[in-house]
UniProtKB/TrEMBL annotation:
UniProt name for this protein: AMP-dependent synthetase/ligase domain-containing protein
Ranges for domain AMP-binding enzyme C-terminal: 241-326
Single GO MF annotation: CoA-ligase activity
Keywords: Ligase
Domain AMP-dependent synthetase/ligase residue range list: 11-190
Organism of origin: Serpula lacrymans var. lacrymans (strain S7.3) (Dry rot fungus)
Sequence similarity: Belongs to the ATP-dependent AMP-binding enzyme family.
Taxonomic superkingdom: Eukaryota
Length: 349
């Protein structure tokens, strides 16, 4: 199914590079099974390190690398890119988490400075969908940057609004929860009928839990996770949108946004956890507080009123993420509870 829409490859030329864990479906299918179905070799490393990645590309003439968005954040800044011959690299294929347009542009321009004309594209899927359901073909990687592309063959998709009294399919340009159906979608969760009933409709539609938008040409863009949307006084605030914006700040190396409960306002407030690009600059409490306030003001100038970081900004050494590169928001929520209990963060309402 994927071969029919994946860019053409040459067994005599193309080489895959992988650093994804095999216990995650992204690595298991896309590094263990897919390359071999194409007759392509795969270069593997046990863990990601910028220098090791660049050295492997140079040594084995890697052409295609499967990555996750956090690795692009590293590519945008790490000096290793300028220390190796990366001209063989033609495509970075990202998955597991949304990919921001600004980050793509920054990394592509950085690779061009060392003579590597790299196409950066992405796909979408879940463990329950085996995994890929959408793929942005490289020919659209610049014209539709940020999109996960078209629906794969043999699958059906709906964007559904369940907020009102009546379930409805949304119009093009409107956001709704992505539902998919087809031969590669799971039948259910093993020995967990309640979870299956909550996720799969009687007609066989799997509810992904992801909010998406489809344009008139059939390109899908993932907006956020349904359960991760922050509700500020009735307004929906997608964390991914704010995270993408924060990564455009010149002094922010990484970022994560969650909602924190405000008893005074009886609503959730968006809070950002950011990693400074140069940690030594925020080594003192006063410098840290000044930077947090400046980031909060910077964001306020660029978003609608309900999307302001009213829950504050907190500098942390590292954004907690899974092996697949997904932000572990649960850990940040636990941290936020402790901060609220000790009064460490003062929200600006």
């Amino acid at each position: 199914m994927l071969q029919s829409i994946f860019p053409a490859t040459d067994p005599k030329k193309d080489v895959f590079f992988g650093v994804l864990p095999f216990y995650h479906i992204y690595g298991a299918v896309k590094l263990l099974l897919f390359p071999f179905s194409l007759g392509l070799p795969v270069v593997l490393t046990p863990r990601f390190a910028p220098t090791a990645f660049c050295a492997a590309v140079e040594r084995y003439k890697v052409t295609i690398a499967l990555i996750v968005p956090p690795l692009l954040v590293v590519f945008a800044r790490d000096p290793a890119i300028k220390q190796h011959d990366l001209r063989s690299l033609t495509m970075l294929f990202s998955g597991a988490a949304p990919l921001g347009a600004k980050l793509v542009k920054t990394v592509r321009e950085r690779f061009l400075t060392v003579g590597a004309d790299v196409c950066i594209t992405q796909g979408y899927g879940l463990t329950e969908t085996s995994p890929t359901t959408h793929l942005l073909h490289p020919k659209y990687s610049e014209s539709h940057v940020g999109s996960v592309g078209h629906l794969c063959p043999n699958l059906e998709a709906r964007l559904v609004d369940e907020e009102g009294e009546v379930l409805r399919d949304v119009n093009p340009g409107e956001s709704g929860e992505l539902w998919v159906r087809g031969p590669t979608i799971m039948k259910g969760y093993l020995n967990n009928p309640s979870a299956t009933k909550a996720s799969v409709t009687p007609e066989g539609w799997f509810k992904t839990g992801d909010i998406a938008v489809r344009d008139k040409d059939g390109f899908y863009t993932i907006v956020d996770r349904r359960k991760e949307l922050i509700k500020y006084k009735g307004f929906q605030v997608p964390p991914a949108e704010l995270e993408s914006l924060l990564l455009q700040h010149p002094d922010v190396a990484d970022a994560a946004v969650i909602g924190v409960e405000s008893k005074e306002e009886a609503t959730e407030l968006p809070r950002a956890y950011v990693v400074h690009a140069n940690p030594s600059v925020v080594s003192t409490p006063s410098a840290c507080m000044a930077f947090e306030a400046s980031v909060q003001a910077w964001v306020a100038e660029r978003v609608a009123r309900h999307k302001k970081l009213r829950g504050g900004v907190v500098v942390i050494p590292l954004v907690p993420k899974s092996a697949a590169g997904k932000i572990l928001r649960r850990e940040l929520r636990e941290r936020a509870k402790k901060e609220e209990a000790t009064g460490q963060v003062k929200a600006k309402l």
